[in-house]
From TrEMBL:
One of its GO terms (biological process) is methylation. SUPFAM superfamilies: S-adenosyl-L-methionine-dependent methyltransferases. It comes from the Bacteria. The keyword Methyltransferase applies. GO terms for molecular function: polyprenyldihydroxybenzoate methyltransferase activity. InterPro entries: Methyltransf_11 (IPR013216), SAM-dependent_MTases_sf (IPR029063). Residues 50-139 form the Methyltransferase type domain. It comes from Allomesorhizobium camelthorni. PANTHER family: JUVENILE HORMONE ACID O-METHYLTRANSFERASE, METHYLTRANSFERASE. Pfam families: Methyltransf_11. This is Class I SAM-dependent methyltransferase. Keywords: Methyltransferase, Transferase. The lineage of its organism: Bacteria, Pseudomonadati, Pseudomonadota, Alphaproteobacteria, Hyphomicrobiales.
Length: 237
């Protein structure tokens, strides 16, 4: 079920003000780490980058190391404050599905945990593709339905919060008609119920991390047990 854009805007203005202007959680930090790694591999500093659903705009200044960044989000009040903090970024508030950035315009489109919160996900994917130059890259993070459904208690959606998660197979099926999918993998093992809660507990993992560092966490990610699915995909030439 969808919700009016005005109601979605109210929700995300409130959520971003509470959860992204004050603190960036470890799940988001890990997503950013992966994206920045991909950008670093490009070896370029002249990219045109679009971040779709940039929230409070926190990640855009890090992306700006690699070129010119445009950040867009429905949260107009939050982005107005982001413009004051990060004047080097071009922030554009509004409904991405109604925006026209030109076609094709960008070398890279980045989107973190946005796909699950849009009404028409197929159209959302097509629109991101339309703004990419041939050979351009989509760098995406989205919630891992398998992990959230089986190992986590998640509150029901709030008014104005749309929600439809994907597992890795569903995500590949959604993207493959439009992109050459290069990588799909999970990051950030996280659980608050069932046996995975114990396996991921801070107390249990402290001695493990002391001995093995992040190797066990990376193994869980490889097994698909991460909260987030990361995707690197390429628009065909």
């Amino acid at each position: 079920m969808s919700a009016p854009i005005s109601l979605q805007q109210d929700f995300w203005n409130s959520w971003n003000a509470e959860c992204r202007e004050t603190e960036i959680q470890d799940v988001s930090v890990r997503q950013a780490e992966v994206i920045l790694g991909w950008l670093e591999q490009s070896g370029r500093r002249d990219l045109k980058i679009l971040e779709v659903g940039c929230g409070a705009g926190w990640f855009c200044p890090q992306l700006a190391k690699y070129g010119k960044v445009t950040g867009t989000d429905l949260s107009d009040e939050v982005l107005a404050r982001a413009k004051q903090r990060f004047p080097e970024v071009d922030y554009v508030a509004g409904d991405f599905m109604e925006m026209d950035f030109g076609t094709p315009t960008f070398d890279v489109v980045v989107t973190l945990e946005v796909l699950s919160h849009v009404a028409d996900q197929e159209a959302f994917v097509r629109k991101m593709k339309s703004h990419l130059r041939p050979g351009g890259s989509l760098m995406m993070a989205t919630q891992n339905r398998f992990v959230l459904k089986h190992f986590n208690r998640i509150p029901p959606p709030a008014p104005g919060q749309l929600r439809k998660w994907f597992d890795r197979h569903e995500l590949r099926a959604l993207l493959s008609p439009h992109f050459d999918v290069r990588e799909i993998f999970s990051v950030s093992p996280k659980a608050n119920r069932g046996f995975m809660r114990a396996i991921n507990s801070t107390k249990l993992n402290y001695p493990v991390r002391t001995i093995f560092g992040n190797r066990v966490e990376r193994l869980k990610e490889t097994m698909g047990l991460g909260w987030t699915l990361m995707v690197l995909a390429r628009k065909p030439e």
